[in-house]
Amino acid sequence: MNKSIIALATSFLLATSSAALADVSATVNLTSDYTFNGVSQTGNDPALQGSLDYAGADGFYTGAWASTVDFGSAEDTNAELDVYVGKYFQLDAKTGLDAGIAYYTYHGDSASDTYNYPEAYAKFNYNSSLGNTELNFWYSWDYFGLDAGHYITMVAHTFEVAPGHNVRASFDRSTSSDVNEWSWNGNESYNHARVEYMTSYEGFDFNLALEDTNMNMDSADSRIVLSVSRTFGL
Question: Tens of pLDDT along 102-151?
Fold first, then answer.
């Protein structure tokens, strides 16, 4: 299950904060539901997450991210650990490109590692007086360890509604290139929309999101997700 938020968060920091261009940090996050493009990875329950990241002055970055997961009573997989490496390129005063590769791993029982898979991504962002616009792409050639191609496209826009208060709206489409190996509720693709409000207070970051998909399943219906995180410089 693609975890697009990993690279999105890193590239956004690189694009918007010069202080983030030479930094080692750790983040702890508590969320009411861990969703992947609108699909719960925790059976609609809360998750504890954490990351360790390095961002260099030349745009190079690498890191690791972990979360609790729950794929259902029939499986004992209970943890996810992802690693990623990439580079951010400032193409001009307003435009940037973030490109890299991630590897997602799962843990908990003897079969969990069969779900492991790689993924490449490229993300473009454009900063203007109206906010930050993103065009993002992800591709895996061995999705969820099934030797199936899978890709995701996303368009998003973030704008400031008041100093320290931002809103991000996004729309993405997940598509399997081999429905015999992987399908989304019997279909080759599905759509996901998300609107989120982001702010900070006393060193904590808050994210309140409303999201929904066009799939008819309990783990992908409309929901509100609240996340609280704190980042520590190392």
Answer: 999 999 988 899 999 999 999 999 999 999 999 999 999 999 999 999 99
Strands 150-162 and 165-176, bridge-based pairing: antiparallel
d(CA 163, CA 198): 11
Residues 6 or more apart from 25 whose CB is under 8 A from it?
A: 52, 53, 55, 231, 232, 233, 234
Q: How many domains does the chain have?
A: 1
What backbone phi and psi angles, to 5 degrees, belong to 10?
A: -65, -50
Domain range spanning residue 31?
5-233
Alpha-carbon distance of 181 to 17, in angstroms, equals 41
What is the domain-level CATH number for residue 122? 2.40.160.40
Strands (E), 177-219: 189-201, 204-213
For residue 187, what is the DSSP state? B
- Residue 163, Cβ neighbours under 10 Å: how many? 6
Beta carbons within 10 angstroms of residue 160's beta carbon: 13
Question: What is the pTM assigned to this prediction?
Answer: 0.89
Q: What is the DSSP string of 72-108?
A: -TT----EEEEEEEEEEEE-SSSEEEEEEEEEEEEES
d(CA 137, CA 153): 5
